[in-house]
C-alpha cells in the first residue's frame, strides 16, 4: 500500500530535518497533518525527500473518528488536500476521540469498546473514506485506562472495525507494548490476536515508566521490547513499512540513524525467521 | 447496524463527562479506574505545559519558576483550544496572564510576533494571510517596532531602541 523503496520510515519533524535528509535508506516519512497547509509551498526539506522517491503520508490527529460528532468536513478536506499535494498513497488517523461536548481533550482518548461505539465509529470512518482520494489507515492508541463494561478486547474491536469498514491498520507496536504493560499482559500474546493481515504500516516509539505506569512519550529511545515486537511481527508477515516516532528530546543524528538501523535489523531478523519457518513447511 | 442519534447522544455525554473529569481539579466519577484517570489527567497537563514551553520560550523564561503554577491555574479553567495547538494554547495563557497579573515585559516581542503571524478565530488562532503591518512600543529597554509580514511569509522588522536616551536603529529582514 505504501509503495516505498525501503520499509524504514520516520515521523518528519523540523528539528530532525537534516538528520532525516541524511538517512539514505529512508523509504517514507509521515507528516502531522495539522502542521501543514496544503495552500502553501511544500517545505524544501520535504520536497527534497520527495525528489529522491521518499513517500509522504499525512497523519491526522484531529478528526476524532471515535467521537460522537459527525466527522468535521473541513478537517477531512484538509487531510484530502494534503494527500493530493504530497502525492500520498494513503492517509492515517486514529481509533480515538479528541473532543466532546464542545471541549477539546488535548490528546487522543480511547473509545468505549462497545457495539454501540463501534457502530458510530464505523459510520464516521465510512464518511471519511467517502471524502478521501486515497485509502485510510487507522491507528491503535495507547491509553492509561480502559472504559468499563467492554464488549470486545482491543484486538477484537480492531478486527471488527477493519472488517466492517475496509480500512487498513496502522499498527502502533509501541502502543501494543504500552497497553500490555499497563494491563499486566504479555504484549507478544496481544500481537498474536491483532489483525496483522491488514497492516498498512507500523509505528514504533520510546516511552518511560513513572509511578508504575508506562507512558508512551515519543521522547525516549525505542525499548528492546518494542523492537522484539517488530521482529515477532516480521516473523509472521512482511510489514510494508515500520517508522519511528520521535516528538521530543531529539537525539543527535548518529543516535537517530542507529535507532532506524535497529528497526531495519529487527525487520531482517524477522524476515529470516519467516523464511526459515516457510522452508520448514511442506 | 447504523448508529442512531440517540446512541450518538449517549456517547457524547459519556465522552464529555470524561473530558471534564480530566481537567485539573476535575472530579473523577465512577467509570474508568480513578487512579488511571488521575494519571491520564496529569499526563495531559504535562503535555500542555511542554507544548507551551516549546512554542512560547520567551514567556516561559520570563516567568521562571512561576510558569508551572501559573499555567496550571489557567489550565484548571481553560481547556486546550480547538484550533492552533500549543501555540494557540500559549497565546490564550498569555492573554489570561495579562488580564490577571500583567504580562512580563521581556516576553512582549514574542507576543507581538504572534499577533503578526496569527489572528484569533472562534476556538483558537489561524495563520494570517496577505501582507500585515504592525507597530508597537515595548519597555525594558524602550523600543518602537515596525514589523511587516509579507505575503510570502517572510518578515521585515525595524526598531528604534532608546538606551540611556541614546537612540539606536536596528532591523532584521528575512530573505
Notes on the protein architecture:
The complex is a heterodimer of chains A (282) and B (175). Chain A is of the alpha/beta class and 282 residues long. Chain A is 39% helix and 20% strand. In chain A, a hairpin with a 2-residue loop joins strand 10 (208-210) and strand 11 (213-215). Chain A is globular. With 175 residues, chain B is an alpha+beta fold. The longest helix of chain B is centred in the N-terminal third of the chain and has 22 residues, at 34-55. Chain B has six helices and six strands; from the N terminus they run H-H-H-H-H-H-E-E-E-E-E-E. In chain B, the strands form two sheets. In chain B, strands 3-4-5-6 form a four-stranded antiparallel sheet, covered by helices on one side. Chain B has a two-stranded antiparallel sheet with strand order 1-2. Classes of the chains: A alpha/beta (282), B alpha+beta (175). The A-B interface holds A 34, 37, 40, 67-69, 97, 99-101, 103-107, 109, 112, 116-117, 119-120, 122-123, 143-148, 211, 213, 215, 248 and B 1-3, 7-16, 18-20, 22, 31-33, 36-37, 39-40, 43-44, 47-48, 50, 79-82, 85, 127, 153.
